[in-house]
Each structure stands twice: as structure tokens, then as C-alpha cells.
Specification:
Order of helices and strands: HHHHH
Shape: extended
Largest sheet: none
Strand content: under 5%
Number of helices: 5
Structural class: mainly alpha
């Protein structure tokens, strides 16, 4: 019989799926299209600028860089954030204002943890199935 041994390693397609970072693929030479590489470099430059100069969270800066037409246009990215991520942009603007007033500030990358005492978490049961 051909029983599968549990000690044998699984093929790579059986493990947890993870999209590899575009930068990793470029560095390994797996992405070679000059236009795509240039696009990636513009996006990473834009993300760095949004984070450093405008205190935008990494996740939001990356999303804006992917969504806008001109991958190097800070104003277009800020406009996109104003329309699609208003709450996050307003947080960044308040942080920026505090920084300009001389306060040392830090961008909060993640949402507050659910165990934060200021946050109430409600767990709702799903409605019962009809006819059961």
C-alpha cells in the first residue's frame, strides 16, 4: 500500500498561502519588467514620503499608492485618502499638528487591541435559522 508518511514534508502548494512581497520578487529577479519595477519604486517612494512627511499609517499609504494613477503624486494620494480613508487621514493630520507644535508623536499602525479598557466589544449570536 502507498500510505503517505506524516513525516514527509508537504509540497509548497499545501502550506499556508502567502503572496510574496513584490520587492522580494524584484530582488530575486523574478519580476524583470522595467515598467513594473519603476512602478514599484515610485509606490515605495510615495509610501515613504506619506509616512514620513504626513504621518500616514503604512497600510493606508500602501493602499493609496496602489489605487492612484500617478504612483509618485503625493497630492493625488492625499486626495484619495481624503475621499476613501477620511477617518485615518484626519488622525494623521491631528498627529502632524501635534508634531508641529513640538510634541513627539508616534503613528499607531494597528487598530487598538480589543482588550483595551476603553473599547467595548459586543458578541452577537446569529439569528436562529427559520423552520428549525
Amino acid at each position: 500500500p502507498h500510505a503517505h508518511s506524516a513525516s514527509r514534508s508537504l509540497p509548497p502548494w499545501c502550506g499556508p498561502r502567502r503572496l510574496r512581497d513584490e520587492g522580494e520578487l524584484i530582488a530575486e529577479g523574478k519580476i524583470t519588467d522595467p515598467a513594473r519595477i519603476e512602478d514599484y519604486e515610485k509606490r515605495t517612494g510615495l509610501v515613504a514620503k506619506l509616512r514620513k512627511e504626513h504621518l500616514i499609517r503604512a497600510k493606508d499609504a500602501l493602499e493609496a499608492s496602489v489605487e492612484i494613477a500617478d504612483k509618485s503624486d503625493v497630492d493625488e494620494a492625499l486626495e484619495w485618502l481624503r475621499i476613501h480613508k477620511e477617518k485615518e487621514l484626519n488622525k494623521a493630520l491631528k498627529l502632524l499638528q501635534r508634531q508641529e507644535e513640538g510634541e513627539e508623536v508616534e503613528v499607531e499602525e494597528e487598530e487598538p487591541e480589543p482588550d483595551d479598557p476603553d473599547i467595548e466589544v459586543f458578541i452577537c449570536e446569529p439569528p436562529p435559522l427559520r423552520g428549525m
